[in-house]
Amino acid sequence: MKTPESLLESINNYIDSLDYSKEPKGLYEPISYVLSLGGKRIRPLLMLMSANLWKEDVEDLLPAAVGLEVYHNFTLLHDDLMDKADRRRGMLTVHKKWNDNTAILSGDAMLILAYHYFMQVCCEQKEAMINTFSKAALEVCEGQQLDMDFETLSNVTEAEYLRMIRLKTSVLLAAALRIGAEYGEAGEENARLMYDFGINIGLAFQLQDDYLDVYGNPETFGKKIGGDILCNKKTWMLIKCLELADESSKLQLRGWLNRIDFLAEEKIAAVTGIYNAVRVGDLAQEKIEEYYQKGIECLNQVAVPDDRKEGLRLLAEKMLKRNR
Amino acid sequence: MKTPESLLESINNYIDSLDYSKEPKGLYEPISYVLSLGGKRIRPLLMLMSANLWKEDVEDLLPAAVGLEVYHNFTLLHDDLMDKADRRRGMLTVHKKWNDNTAILSGDAMLILAYHYFMQVCCEQKEAMINTFSKAALEVCEGQQLDMDFETLSNVTEAEYLRMIRLKTSVLLAAALRIGAEYGEAGEENARLMYDFGINIGLAFQLQDDYLDVYGNPETFGKKIGGDILCNKKTWMLIKCLELADESSKLQLRGWLNRIDFLAEEKIAAVTGIYNAVRVGDLAQEKIEEYYQKGIECLNQVAVPDDRKEGLRLLAEKMLKRNR
Question: pLDDT tens across A51-77, in order?
């Protein structure tokens, strides 16, 4: 079995070897820029680690793994444009560094390139793998649409929110794991379990992100604490708090949501105070734990010797920052 | 052999049968809208007619033909957004009817769907067909980038312009024909000839479009005459005129390009007058004829009985409005 470190090195070497110094520069430079910004390469790593459960040699799967990473970076590029985000991984986003049209067109090219890389894999399972990818890719679009729809809805239920993050975040992690299993000829039952492992870990991961926006350590979170609170983002925290708070707290919370003039620190402190009173942080932790356990349970049922799954277990823990 | 009319009917029936009445509506309604606007379905028709040169039954190729049409409509959707165009086929463009983010995201979904439809074809040649599609799809992005680059360049040569329209327009027509030949197991030489037929007809087609913007019949052209002149679009007409005009005409032409305040009719008449003096219209006609003949020559060399190629010959004529 390969170590995650060596797989990650293969992924990064492969990405570094891609030559985007082509004409027209206006199309290819932003692609090169986006891919050079790094990131944890979790999706391709999950794909290779999954395949590695069944096959020793996963080198041939690298193009698909990188295709998935290119796809993921394409979604970030277009999402940042749609969300008018200025920065990504501490650097200017493409539409800020260049312009909107560049972000649209270079993103389109990345989506085509993602399929191009997938097509380079040579194996009988390629058809199933690409279909799994396409299904997930379309669902990510659905998730992004729901996320945008939610911005103008006054009421979003917990179930609706969970459906949205399942589509926007979880299915791609799940697809990465399933594609690895398909490549490994693991059989439908194992592929399904790997997919469900990914879905549950993905949900836990996104809820963790929502939680850390309120309760994270400012020094390790990476983003500013309270960002979601300031822009009234309908996170699990807010949705659950609006569901559970008593009338007086609910009124207070709605007051802060409607306020236009406020001091950032004051709003963050006030909303956090209401979250504390409703103990929505504890509830989030329980929910995260629930999904995490469900995910691990799926992984446990996968029919390969237990010690082979240790790497994926550790990666899931790391993603959920349980090793703080 | 199938008649073009019956192939077109199959294409339209297939498109009509696609169900986009799915959730989220914000994602799928614009796709349904774009595909319902019609269009001549030339690309899927070329693909099926090409395949039909070698295979009687081309029904199984329909998903790929429709995939190519979905891809083409995706490019129109994103191009209209980038060009800030208000109307397409007499109807509001997606970013006007909805908004920019909808145009971005629904377009992305269409690109994924294009691959999804391609993947539904069941044949050994699928891999080659999809690779031909991906290569063309990426080149269309390159062409669109060059087209946008040209807007801010003061000098574009004829060669640069021809390269741009080859990428932006011709390669997709060429790919349609080549994919049909690949499906038909026509062999590499025939596939190449069909591709080159498409490239040359595509170049003639785009030059015809440039020509008709100046000299077209307002009642049959579909767009307003002089649109390219008004927005200083670097068409073949303008580029060639700047190359060939004497110093005094060139100065006059540059004067009109730099003028900010003008009456539309006056500018169109003045620029057309300079085009007339340089006889750039006649030169365009010669160039169109040259590419058309080159294309037909490629088609003639394709190793199938001559009478089978009559439909494609007639379609090429029709595209170039030579049957006026």
Answer: 999 999 999 999 999 999 999 999 999
Number of C-beta neighbours around residue A68 at 10 A: 26
B92, β-bridge pairs: B87
Residue A87 DSSP SS3: strand
A313 contacts A296 by C-beta, under 8 angstroms: yes
Rounded-to-5 percentages of helix, strand, coil across chain A? 75, 0, 25
Helix, strand or coil, per DSSP, at residue A91: strand
Contact B111 A108 (CB under 8 A): yes
Contact B27 A145 (CB under 8 A): yes
Extract the runs of DSSP E, i.e. beta strands, from chain B: 87-88, 91-92
Q: What is the mean pLDDT of residues A299-320?
A: 97
Distance from CA of A14 to the nearest CA of B (A): 20
Please give the pLDDT value at position B323.
43
| Domains present along chain A, CATH in parentheses | 1-137 (1.10.600.10), 187-324 (1.10.600.10)
Closest CA to B198 of B314, B134, B307, B292: B292
pTM of the predicted model over 0.90 = yes
Contact A111, A74 (CB under 8 A): yes
Per-residue model confidence (pLDDT) at position A322 = 54
* Residue (of B298, B296, B234, B300) closest to B271 by Cα position: B234
Q: Ramachandran region of residue A88, left (φ > 0), alpha (ψ -120 to 50) or beta?
A: beta
Those residues with Cβ within 8 angstroms of residue A64's Cβ, 6 or more apart along the chain or in another chain:
A47, A117, A118, A120, A121, A129, A133, A179, A183
In this predicted structure, what is the pLDDT of residue B165?
Answer: 98
Which of A113, A141, A149 minimises the CB distance to B108? A141
In whole angstroms, give the CA distance from residue A265 to residue A267: 6
**What are A92's two structure tokens?**
């200017």
Spatial distance between the Cα atoms of A316 and A201, rounded to a whole number of angstroms? 7
Residues of B in contact with A109 (CB under 8 A): 138, 141
Q: Are B110 and B77 in contact (CB under 8 A)?
A: yes
Contact B60, B9 (CB under 8 A): no
Nearest to A138 among B81, B82, B112 (CB): B112
Query: Residues near B217 by Cβ (< 8 Å), separated by ≥ 6?
Result: none
Give yes or no for a contact between B182 and B211, defined as CB atoms under 8 angstroms apart.
no
What pLDDT tens digit does each residue of chain B (324 aa) get? 999 999 999 999 999 999 999 999 999 999 999 999 989 999 999 999 999 999 999 999 999 999 999 999 999 999 999 999 999 999 999 999 999 999 999 999 999 999 999 999 999 999 999 999 999 999 999 999 999 999 999 899 999 999 999 999 999 999 999 999 999 999 999 999 999 999 999 999 999 999 999 999 888 777 789 999 999 999 999 999 999 999 999 999 999 999 999 999 999 999 999 999 999 999 999 999 999 999 999 999 999 999 999 999 999 999 997 544
Alpha-carbon span A203 to A287, nearest angstrom = 9
* Token couple for A173: 């992690």
In the block, tokens 């096959």 appear at: A55
Sequence-distant (≥ 6) Cβ neighbours of residue B204 within 8 angstroms: B288, B289, B291, B292, B295, B320
Query: Are A210 and A226 contacting, i.e. CB atoms less than 8 angstroms apart?
Result: no
Do the Cβ atoms of B134 and A142 come within 8 Å? Answer: no
pLDDT (average), residues A232-248: 96
| DSSP SS3 for B85 | coil
DSSP state of B123: S
